[in-house]
Amino acid sequence: MSDLRTEAPITRRQALATAGAALTLALGACSGAPASETPGEGPTVSDRPSGEGEAPEAEPVDPLTQQVEAALAKMSLEEKVWQLFVVRPEAVTGVSVQTAAGEATRKALAERPVGGICYFGANLTDTDQTRKMLSNTRDYAKEINGLPIFLCVDEEGGTVTRIAGNSAFGVDDMGDMCDIGATGDTDKAYDAAAYIGQYLTYLGFNVDFAPDADIANNPDGTMGQRSFGATADVVAPMVAAQVRGFTDAGILCSAKHFPGIGGAVGDSHDQSIYSDKTLDEIREEELRPFEAAIEEDVPFVMVGHLSMPEVTGDDDPASISSELVTDVLRKELGYEGIVITDSFEMGAATSALDTAGLAVAAIDAGVDMVLMPADLVAAHQGVVDAVGSGELTEARIDESVTRVLRVKLGRLG
C-alpha cells in the first residue's frame, strides 16, 4: 500500500503547473511549419483575371467532427446504445464487489462496452490498487472499441468522498462546500476543485460528478452541507470557480442536480421529491448556478429526480422530462454538452417507471447518458427495442452518442 502524498506530492496550485506543462507538450507535438508552396505549378489566385476560374472557398473541416463521424459510422445500434450508460463496475462484470480488473473485466467489457463506469468506496482500497484497476479498465475499453471510457467517481469533499474519506490514500478532505461558500472567496472553491482533480487524475479517474450546483434554500432540506449556500449570488460564482479548477486539473466535471434540488423536501435516494416553484421562479435562483457552469464549458450536467408539476404539468421527475431537459436546459440555457441522469437506482426514479421504461423515457426527453440503471441488461434492451418499435429513432440515439464521442475523443483523446 502506498500513500498518495508520497507517490504524488500535492499542493493546491500544483494542478495548474501540471496542466500547463501537459498543454505545452501537447501544443509542441502538434505544431509544425506549414507546407511550402511549390513554384511553377500554376497561377496563384492573384495571377488570374478577376472572377476567372476561381473556386468558391471551401469551408474549413473540423478534424474532431470527422473523427466522431468516422467512429459513429463503425458502430452497430447495440454498440451505440451501450455508450449511453454509466454503471457500477459490478453491473458489467457481475461480481459482488469489484476491486481489480483482469481478464474477466476484459471479457465483460467486450460483451457490454458501456460508456462509463462509476466507482464507490468499496471498490477503492488504496493508491496502487486503484491505479492498476483503472489503468487496466481504460486499456481494455480502448482495445475493444478504440474509444476512451469514462472512469467516474463522486468526490465533492466533506460528506461526499470516496478517496479523501479513506486514510489509505493520504489526501486531505477539502471539507463541506457550505464552509467554503461561507467565506465568500471563490479562490478557495477553485483551489479545492484543483486539489481534488489533481489527485483523482493521478489515480486514473477522468470524470468527477462535482460540483454541487444546488441552492440550499430550504432549512429542512438535505443539501445544506453539500451546497455552497442559500442564494444564487453565493452559489453561482463558486460553481464557476470549481468548474475552472477541475478543468485546469485535467478532469471532466459535472454540475448537479439540475434544475436544482436544494429547496426540495425529502431525499431522492428514498422517495419522490417535489418543488412547487414555477419556471420564472427557478430562473431567478435555481438555474443561475447551472448557467454559470455552462459559461465555463462544463462537460456534464447531471439531471436530478425532482418533480416540478408547475413546470411540467405532471409528477414525472426532471430526469425524464422533455420540458426541463430539452426546453429549458438545451434550448433556453443553450447547453450543448453531455446531459446525464442522477442514479436510476434511486427511489425517486424507480417509483416512476420500470428499468427499461426509465431509460427510454430519459433518452426521449433529451438525456444523453443514463446513470446506474437498476438492471443494465434490461435498460439496454429496452432502448434497443424502442428503436425497433419506432418509439425512439436511431437519429435520436446518434445525437446523444455524437455528444459522448465529442467529449471522449476531443477531451480524453
From TrEMBL:
Catalysed conversion reaction: Hydrolysis of terminal non-reducing N-acetyl-D-hexosamine residues in N-acetyl-beta-D-hexosaminides
PROSITE patterns: PROKAR_LIPOPROTEIN (PS51257), TAT (PS51318)
Coiled-coil boundaries: none
EC nos: 3.2.1.52
Region (Disordered): 31-62
Transmembrane segments: none
Keywords for this protein: Glycosidase, Hydrolase
GO molecular function: hydrolase activity
Domain Glycoside hydrolase family 3 N-terminal: 77-407
Assigned protein family: Belongs to the glycosyl hydrolase 3 family.
Official protein name in the record: beta-N-acetylhexosaminidase
